[in-house]
Design a protein that fits this description.
The structure holds two protein chains of two kinds.
Chain A: H1 14-29, E1 40-45, H2 50-62, E2 66-70, H3 84-92, E3 97-102, H4 107-114, E4 119-124, H5 130-144, E5 151-155, H6 162-170, E6 177-181, H7 190-198, E7 202-206, E8 219-222, H8 233-239, E9 258-260, H9 281-299, H10 304-308
Parallel strand pairs in A: 1-2, 1-3, 3-4, 5-6, 5-8, 6-7, 8-9
Helix pairs in contact in A: 1-5, 1-9, 2-9, 3-4, 5-6, 5-9
Chain B: H1 2-6, E1 12-19, H2 24-30, E2 40-48, E3 52-60, H3 66-75, E4 80-85, E5 88-94, E6 100-102, E7 105-106, E8 122-127, E9 130-133, E10 139-141, E11 146-147
Classes of the chains: A alpha/beta, B mainly beta.
Chain lengths: ~325, ~150
């Protein structure tokens, strides 16, 4: 049997991405169903992540599945020295799909190799986080009506920001223009700039974050500039306020522009921005539910056609 | 031809030739030749038309497995391996880096799953001096590689 795990979506075709976006659209129209009645979804969070776990568990519950799992490895046998393989093998006896978050890079790929139960990678260290990417794509698609030819501005921590790296790679087939706005210490790593060059992705790097520099954006993707990322704290003090989005910077922006943020936010988006029609980060989090409903169904072999003809819709 | 006069011909075994002089003892260690009981000849700074100076190892009664050859290729790409059987050259090959290396190389990334689970590593050759970990995706230069 072909393992339908989702470890990465970086190599998904345009068709496959569109298929998942269409699925998410169906789930947005009718999020509550009994499509997964009788199924068991395991959420194994070897590393705590409240937001992602709640989103996956809500997705499973709203589709009628039951959820087992743990939220903290301290309470599991991992803390007694059990290997990841053994934990996955054990849970495979109980669950139809395993959603896992792990602090080690490559953990989800390895897990998918040791079991026939499909694995959904809910983040493996700083490596991959495909469900976040999927909800970002869905948010962009929904607000812009397309993924094609967009001006995407990425702001803040572009060095360690896993979400911006994943988004960058998954947008490569849609002819985007990227603007990287970051302090020197946190600029986009060389390997991703090389990736852009190899894939003919146009990008512009800039340091200034002002009303004028973001006027042309379709998507403004904000990330957190974290103090602990800086080796030079003087540098941190100098730049920490330079990458905060303020309400008065939105005067010249395009009508269709939307502000995304993977959350949690600290201070990088002023609270006044929340009232703007451009603020989209909370809706983005809600889109996570529909995107994750789509991913869970996809790994279980439930097709778009099945979802369109679904007779189990509630309410 | 000079080196062939310095040591007796092999009846059965392997000759590793074209070893860069600074890599000779790395290979001696890698092959654990200290503990090897049969005849071993280790030579260094021999004249070479191809590479000016070179190292060479002759090992009697030793035939390398593909895994051992892969290890040699990682430590020292482009060496030449000759297999001798009954005083004759049975096989001669340039040892090059394979496209995929299973359980040969250790990942340099401390938070890679392969360094934290009892499992095999897998690396892919990206170009002649770069490998990429199948699991964490990190690329590493051959000169910095550590063997498992």
């Amino acid at each position: 049997m072909k393992n339908r795990s989702i470890v990465s979506i970086a190599d998904y075709s345009r068709e496959k991405i569109q298929y998942l976006l269409d699925m998410a659209t169906e789930f947005e129209a009718h999020p509550n169903r009994q499509l997964l009645k009788g199924k068991v979804v395991a959420t194994l969070f070897f590393e705590p992540s409240t937001r992602t776990r709640l989103s996956f568990e809500t997705a499973a519950n709203r589709l009628g599945a039951r959820v087992i799992g743990f939220t903290d490895p301290k309470v599991t046998s991992s803390s007694k020295g059990e290997t990841l393989k053994d934990t996955i093998k054990m849970v495979s006896n109980y669950a139809d799909v395993i959603v896992m978050r792990h602090k080690l890079e490559g953990a989800a790929l390895y897990a998918s190799e040791v079991t026939n139960v499909p694995i959904i990678n809910a983040g493996d260290g700083s490596n991959l986080h495909p469900s976040q990417t999927m909800l970002d794509l869905y948010s962009i698609y929904k607000t812009q009506g397309t993924l094609e030819n967009l001006n995407i501005y990425m702001v803040g921590d572009l060095k360690y920001g896993r979400t911006v790296h994943s988004l960058l790679m998954s947008m490569r087939k849609y002819n985007p223009t990227f603007h990287f706005i970051a302090p020197k210490e946190l600029e986009m790593p060389e390997e991703y700039k090389l990736y852009c060059k190899q894939n003919n992705i146009h990008y512009i790097e800039q340091r200034d974050f002002t009303e004028d520099t973001i006027a042309d954006a379709d998507i403004l993707y904000m990330t957190r500039v974290q103090r602990e990322r800086f080796t030079d704290l003087m540098e941190y003090e100098r730049v920490k306020d330079a990458y905060i989005l303020k309400a008065n910077m939105l005067g010249k922006c395009k009508e269709n522009m939307k502000i995304l943020h993977p959350l949690p936010r600290v201070n990088e988006i002023e609270y006044e921005v929340d009232d703007s029609k451009h603020a989209y980060y909370f809706d983005q989090a809600q889109n996570g539910l529909y995107a994750r409903e789509a991913l869970i169904c996809d790994v279980l072999g439930i097709t778009l056609e099945d979802i369109k003809n679904d007779k189990t819709i509630i309410g | 031809m000079k080196e062939h006069m310095m040591v007796a011909a092999l009846e059965n075994g392997s000759v590793i030739d074209h070893i860069p002089t600074d890599k000779l003892f790395t290979i001696v260690q890698l092959l654990d030749l200290e503990k090897f009981k049969e005849e071993v000849v280790i030579a260094n700074n021999l004249e070479s038309q191809v590479m000016n100076r070179k190292g060479l190892i002759k090992i009697s009664g030793k035939f390398f497995s593909e895994a051992e050859i892969s290890k040699l290729a990682v430590v020292c790409p482009n060496i030449r391996l000759t297999v001798i059987k009954d005083y004759k050259v049975a096989e001669k090959r340039e040892v090059t880096l394979p496209e995929e290396l299973t359980n040969i190389v250790k990942c340099a990334n401390p938070v890679c799953i392969t360094n934290n689970e009892p499992m095999k590593t897998v690396f892919y050759r990206m170009d002649k001096d770069t490998l990429k970990c199948r699991y964490c995706g990190k690329e590493q230069k051959l000169k910095d590689i550590k063997l498992k």
